[in-house]
Amino acid sequence: xxxxAMVDIKAVHKSFGSLEVLRGIDLEVRAGxxxxxxxxxxxxxSTLLRTINHLEKVDSGSVSVDGTLVGYRRSxxxxxxxxxxxxxxxxxxxxxxxxxxxxxxxxxxxxNITEAPVSAxxxxxxxxxxxxxxxxxxxxxxxxxxxxxxxxxxxxQQRVAIARALALEPKLLLFDEPTSALDPExxxxxxxxxxxxxxxxxxxxxxxxxxxxAREVADTVVFMDDGRIVEQGxxxxxxxxxxxxxxxxxxxxxx
Amino acid sequence: xxxxxxxxxxxxAAERAxxxxxxxxxxLKVVPVRxxxxxxxxxxxxxxxxxxxxxxxxxxxxxxxxxxxxFTAQTxxxxxxxxxxxTVYGTAIGFALGIVLAFxxxxxxxxxxxxxxxxxxxxxxxxxxxxxxxxxxxAYLYKRLDFGIPFGPGIFSxxxxxxxxALGAAVLGLALxxxxxxxxxxxxxxxxxxxxQLEAAAALGxxxxxxxxxxxxxxxxxxxxxxxxxxxxxxxxxTSIVSVMAIGELxxxxxVIYGRNGRVVPLLMVATAWYILLTSVLSILQHYVERxxxxxxxx
Lengths: 255, 299
Known about the structure:
The complex is a heterodimer of chains A (255) and B (299). By secondary structure, chain A is an alpha/beta fold.
């Protein structure tokens, strides 16, 4: 193994009631790599992503980010759930971008970005504002700093959401179907921002249905079905020469 | 088979306008439909209104002179002050307790949920007037109130009579009653905030209290405010119930005055005018507060 694992998921199980959505997931993501998770709806890929920043608790197994257990403290062979305050602190190292953006509609674009660094990291507002403007410049929206989210297009909102996640300077970025709620013509502008981040060596896990994006950007493609990882490897392998029948039938439908 | 059909050939303006006319079709004038019955209804309503206004002015039984004399009388103004005090304290304590109850009902602990539910059930079930009389007679139930170790010795001790005077009992009754309704209004407002908002705030690591104060409550205010304004206005008028406890608020005071001079109607009008005036002020206030919390919304 060349680089240390940024994300280390071991034997994770998760059920919602009687429905087992994750049935033993093992996954490693190395620092600076882009992992794209593909799979049909209900295969558990969003749930898996949400366990990485403890938005979902796991039933068993463990998730570590940068060598630290997420959401738990280990003592002997028991995992003790952390207090909410400690979990919130861990989350500041893990950026999360939602399918529906979830910008705060009553705050301006600038306030959306500065809120977490000011309140969670206690950075001085002046510094944070400068950083926020630089981030807006990076996603091409510096003229929208004082706009409210509802005045923006879906693509612009998602770019703001990415800037908001970046403002915490996370070690890891998680994207949960970042383009699924967008009009087709707006998908490109969001993917361009994510590609740009990938080229700068940001560690990312992206759940998406954009096969073209996976082929172009991913270091590793993970295919999930029915709560399990069916296949994983470089895009050329998983996308062009899949071994499993399930992967083949999925790709034949979406390509 | 082609999936699209040829669009129907555009009709020319002349075809749409019916048989060909002399002159330029673009110069045709559109005549809107007439509503003769609407004018009749307006005329009837206007006459009725005029009659009512005429009656108000010319009927001597309204005794506008007496109204004018008492509208700004010292005793009435003082009574208006007490009514406002009851409203302000009732609202402030009621909503403060209501917010606590709302978050208890939304809490993960079944015990806290049940306690809050029980409180709301009880205080919505007991008529306000019955409750007020209970509080007024608190000293009959408990002669002394001790504050100290639960079930243990007291540290501070008060005579109930001295602590809960008539006004205190009234504020207590109004506030406890108000809290039950406020709790449900606040809970409704919090539930109306999209779940993704809390999730985004949690994912960003924003501290819990800050999530509520900065993200959830400002958005909840949008749906809380219209209902809360209803409650404040209804509490403001509801303070008239307190007259059963012989507290000198507005309604009690005009009763006392007309009991003395027999001018019932003009004095009821004094109270009515004050209630209308102050409710109007509250409604205007509501408009501006709602506008403040409408930031970033499209409707």
